[in-house]
Amino acid sequence: MKLRIISPTFHGIIDYSAGVGLIIAPFLLSLGESSPLAIWISVTVGVTVLLASGLTDYRYGLFRTIPFDGHLAIDLIAATAFMIVPFALEFEGLDMIYYLINAAVVYLVVSLTDHNEPIQTN
Predict the structure, then answer these.
(1) Greatest CA separation found in the chain?
(2) pLDDT tens, 32-87?
(3) Among 9, 37, 88, 110, which residue has the least CB neighbours within 10 Å?
(4) Residue 55's CB: how many other CB atoms inside 10 A?
(5) Is the pLDDT of residue 117 over 90?
(6) Long-range Cβ contact pairs of 57-62 (< 8 A, separation 24 or more)
(7) DSSP 120
(8) What is the spatial distance between Cα 43 and Cα 20, in angstroms, rounded to a whole number?
(9) How many DSSP H helices and E strands does the chain contain?
(10) Comparing C-alpha atoms, which of 73, 77, 68 is closest to residue 45?
């Protein structure tokens, strides 16, 4: 059974959606109760995700300078940071839950992405 069900093209759609979500969600969820950094780290990561997506060599990449496997490595670094940040900065409540859920989702998306599928660039 093939468990890698997310194509690089669909991964790109997820990336851009996630970038926008990371920018907007902290405000919609009223994050920042334990620290204002809970808001601004998410916004910064969201902007970074949009930039990295634009630089990735996949269908929706604009400049295509980052190889797709490199992009997946960046995703894993981001997920790991999402796991560490709430503990390192002593986030509590929704602030902590937000980051832990984001970490789990990014790990899941990376693990389900088929990095061996040919990249469509049209």
Answers:
(1) 45
(2) 999 999 999 999 999 999 999 999 999 999 999 999 999 999 999 999 999 999 99
(3) 88
(4) 16
(5) no
(6) 57/119, 57/121, 58/8, 58/9, 58/11, 58/12, 58/119, 58/120, 58/121, 59/8, 59/9, 59/12, 59/119, 59/120, 59/121, 59/122, 60/9, 60/12, 60/13, 60/15, 60/16, 61/12
(7) P
(8) 9
(9) 4, 0
(10) 77
CA distance 102 to 105: 5
Does the pLDDT at position 121 exceed 80? no
Residue type, 120: Q
Beta strands in 40-117 (DSSP E): none
Summary mean pLDDT of the chain? 95
How many whole angstroms separate alpha carbon 11 and alpha carbon 9? 5
